[in-house]
Design brief:
Layout: E1 2-7, H1 12-23, E2 28-35, H2 39-49, E3 53-56, H3 62-68, E4 75-78, H4 80-87, E5 93-96, H5 104-112, E6 116-119, H6 122-139, E7 142-145, H7 148-157, E8 165-172, H8 182-186, H9 190-193, H10 203-211, H11 213-225, E9 233-237, E10 243-249, E11 254-258, H12 264-272, H13 286-289, H14 304-314, H15 318-334, H16 342-353, H17 362-379
Parallel strand pairs: 1-2, 1-5, 2-3, 3-4, 5-6, 6-7, 8-9
Antiparallel strand pairs: 8-10, 10-11
Helix pairs in contact: 2-3, 4-5, 5-6, 6-11, 6-15, 10-15, 11-14, 15-16, 15-17, 16-17
């Protein structure tokens, strides 16, 4: 039996992770479950999986969590420090699935334990990639990617030398607006943007898929996870989302990982690594799928990937600025404050206005993140 901590238990990644654990109950002891503010679901899950501790990030909700767990024997804690302390308990596997920079400090705490961290929080590597990868090297931690694209690359690289890699290709669905014109994109609504054609995801990541910022962030993440050089990373639009990514080697061989559009597949890969585990996902029926198509990304209609590549090239604090500005712009779009095409424009504007020095420690990353957010918010204020 292995121990598991799940940071972000009530989100979509958390639900998929616990579905797999539920099907393999004898293999896991749940150490800690965390959530942002969803007390009811957190308490229910903590009771079901008999977690040692449940942590609510919103400290104001701690009394409600304690009441919901009364008589269970499960410890309750609240606040950001409690999240970090839960991550630092040193479970055999910590699944880091807290969305955004809120997951950065807990993820780093888990890495410091030197165990296995299954990373589903791409913003952590985007904003603090150099700091985080240095911590992984120093502590001997194992960092396993849970994003479907990076998990696919990880599988395709297994047993091969990075020096033999010619290309790493991240596939992108293109999102719900891949065939829309400029005029249609300008009029796109939040309700339309969150309806991803292939994946069932949260609102923020669904909007990121629609803008292609999700793929841009994944490009930066891949840059840190797979050190082959930025010039060997590329993106291709693959609307069916069957091939999750590919690695081409210098001998002309290309290895691709295929699978259903179900996050339980990459999560299972990370949970069971270096073995495999059963999932409830239906086998691929390629005859029924019929065809797999590909196209080059259109950075005129979707400039996010261009901005992300430029940020990765610049390095230092630039990716953290890009990520923070995007989070503010997406939130503004979802709130009806800005139009869809304004998201990328806001990010580019923030990048042109704010260029801080490279962060040396995690506190520097948070300072950059806060200032970039403030700059982005300032762009929405009347002159």
């Amino acid at each position: 039996m292995r121990t598991l901590t799940l940071l972000g238990a009530t989100g979509s990644i958390g639900a998929s992770t616990l579905d797999l654990v539920r099907r393999n109950r004898d293999d896991w002891h749940v150490v800690a479950l965390t959530a942002h503010s969803n007390v009811a679901d957190l308490a229910r899950l903590a009771r079901e999986f008999r977690a040692d501790i449940a942590v609510i990030a919103d400290a104001a909700m701690l009394p409600a969590l304690r009441e919901a767990l009364a008589g269970s024997g499960i410890a309750a804690a609240g606040g950001e420090d409690a999240l970090v302390e839960a991550a630092a308990r040193g479970a055999d596997v910590t699944v880091a699935a807290i969305v955004g920079c809120a997951g950065l400090a807990p993820t780093m705490a888990a890495i410091e334990c030197g165990r296995t961290v299954a990373l589903a929080n791409k913003e952590a590597l985007v904003s603090a990639g150099e700091i985080m990868t240095a911590a992984v090297a120093r502590t001997g931690a194992t960092l396993l990617p849970v994003d479907s694209e990076h998990n696919a690359i990880f599988q395709c690289l297994a047993g091969n030398d990075h020096g033999d890699v010619r290309w790493i290709t991240l596939t992108a669905s293109g999102g719900p607006f891949r065939d829309w014109s400029h005029d249609q994109l300008a009029a796109a609504t939040p309700a339309q943007a969150v309806k991803h054609p292939n994946w069932d995801m949260g609102a923020k990541i669904s909007v990121d898929s629609a803008t292609m910022f999700n793929k841009g962030l994944e490009l930066i993440e891949a840059f840190h996870l797979f050190p082959v050089g930025l010039d060997r990373l590329r993106i291709i639009v693959h609307p069916q989302s069957i091939i999750h990514s590919m690695v081409e080697y210098r001998d002309g061989s290309t290895l691709a990982q295929l699978g259903p559009s179900d996050m339980r597949v990459p999560i299972a890969s990370a949970l069971a690594w270096p073995q495999r585990m059963q999932t409830p996902c239906a086998p691929l029926d390629l005859a029924a799928i019929g065809e797999l198509t590909f196209r080059a990304p259109d950075e005129d209609r979707f400039p996010a990937t261009r901005l992300a590549r430029q940020a990765a090239q610049a390095g230092g604090a630039t990716p953290a600025v890009l990520n923070a500005a995007n989070e503010i712009a997406v939130a503004a779009f979802l709130a009806g404050q800005v139009g869809f095409t304004r998201i990328a424009a806001m990010v580019e504007d923030v990048l042109s206005r704010y260029a801080p020095p490279a962060p040396a420690v995690l506190a520097d990353v948070f300072a950059v993140d806060a200032e970039a957010r403030a700059t982005a918010r300032g762009l929405m204020q009347p002159a």
